[in-house]
Amino acid sequence: MNAFINWMELHFMPIAAKIANQRHLIAIRDGFIAIMPVTMVGSIAVLLNVFFRDLPNEWFGEGNAFVSAMTPLISVNGNVYFGSIVILGMAFTISFGYHLAKSYDVNPIAGGVIAFSSVVTCMNQSAVFDYALPGVSDASLDVLTSAGLNAVSDGAGGVILNGVSGWGYMSQAFTGAGGLFTCLIAGLISTMIYVKLMQKKVTIKLPASVPPAVSNAFASVIPGTIAIYTFGILTQLCVMITGLYPNDLIIEWIQKPLLGLSQGIFSVILVTFLIQLFWFFGLHGSNLLAPITEGVYTPALLSNLEIWNTTHSVEEMPYLWTRGSFDAYTMAGGSGCTLALIIAIFIFSKRDDQKAIAKLSAPMGIFQINEPVIFGIPIVLNPIYFIPWLVAAPVCAVIAYAFTAAGIIPPVFIQVPWVMPIGIYAFLSTGGNIFASLVAFLNLAVSICIWTPFVILANRVQEKESI
Question: Which of 125, 164, 236, 295 has a CA positioned 20 to 30 A from the CA of residue 437?
């Protein structure tokens, strides 16, 4: 065991440390963290409507008195959702461009704005759809068709205009979670074009007497123009060659395949295992893998959320495993299910030092904060707890994944604060599903069983050391 740990420290940790300090990955992580207020308020709006509308409709039937009374609040939550989740991709673009430009010590505000403009440049500018004419009956169908309109009856006495189109359209599919990969790729390239041109001083230089705010704005004009025009030209080439806009191509060729790969059980196990492995060597595994967990699994969560908000059906959600699934089922007390370790220490440990640490750590462990356990026991570089630390969370992931795949519990589709206690997190993040909460507690019980033999082993190690 010691030989393995030494080998990992010598060969694996330097690579991990470089990854942890890679500025582009850090910018992705910080970009998602910065928009958490927007993500959270949208999730709160959906969660409130679950209790104001969805569950009452399920319990008392459609059109019940409670839902009717809550209609104004339901509408308010709908407005909040429209101003948060629907434009989440745009918010991330600005945040990502800001943090990436800031890491290079160039004007971060300009970096965020240029990234935003470049992403919008990639988007479809028109839409073609069928439009139901309000207040028009199919008795007027002959008049409409004689006027050259492609009008048909909707079969219920109304009229539908086929093939309605217009310029200036911006789809929610690209401004929200569905466009996150476009936001990430276009935001990264455009910001880097801006950064490199700024570093090479391809700027407009004004006299020193000009106020700094004005001077900085003019300095960004040439780099920003080149970056945005790059995507204007790229967009036109894509449309001419493929007939599709860059955002459509990214969604079909990059986003959907990556999200599909992320949903396999082996992908879930691997990500969960790597989080634990990095933590064992003292690196914050969740932060280190944030570009994956946030960049891949957060779009999955938000896509599920959009489906729920549209259909109110968990059966139509496309993704089994999302960002919140890790917190709901594999992190009871924090990474490694350390709440289970604390409980096992209370029941089976004979070591006063570990009992003291467990007592101090328990209140924080309830709210998913476990640094006192990780560095107090310690778990970092502790060969006794190496196996349960790596095994407990992946086993919990397998259990939760199996229940979700079987349709017994719904996928996680609502983002709630990560400090929410075990069981409550799963309940809220699945729209009030009690079985999801029970699965979280089942995982806690399984984790206690995994940790217990090694807590007992730690007792024996202390006894041998005292002889």
Answer: 295
Structure tokens at 457: 């082993």
* Nearest-angstrom CA–CA distance, 211 and 225: 22
Read off the pLDDT of residues 253-307 as tens digits, 9 standing for 90 and up. 888 888 888 899 999 999 999 999 888 877 777 877 877 788 889 889 988 998 8
CA angle 295, 394, 258 (to 5 degrees): 30
Helix, coil or strand: residue 441: helix
What is the DSSP track for 134-157?
Answer: EEEEGGGHHHHHHTT--EEE-SSS
- Which strands sit side by side in the sheet containing 158-167, from one edge to the other? 126-137, 158-167, 151-153
Nearest to 101 by CA among 212, 229, 219: 219
- Average pLDDT taken over every residue of the chain: 85
Read off the pTM: 0.76
CA distances from 190 to 23, 98, 279 (A): 16, 12, 34
| Region of 381 on the Ramachandran plot (φ > 0 left; ψ -120 to 50 alpha; else beta) | left
CA distance linking residue 364 with residue 17, whole number of Å: 28
CA dihedral 80, 85, 86, 92 (to 10 degrees): 130
Q: What is the pLDDT of residues 392-432, one digit of tens each?
A: 999 999 999 999 999 999 999 998 888 889 999 999 999 88
Which of 276, 462, 301, 305 minimizes the C-alpha distance to 387? Answer: 276
Closest C-alpha among 378, 362, 365, 306 to residue 335:
365
Separation in Å, CA 172 to CA 60, 175, 176, 185, 186? 32, 5, 6, 18, 17
Sign of CA dihedral 400, 406, 410, 413: positive
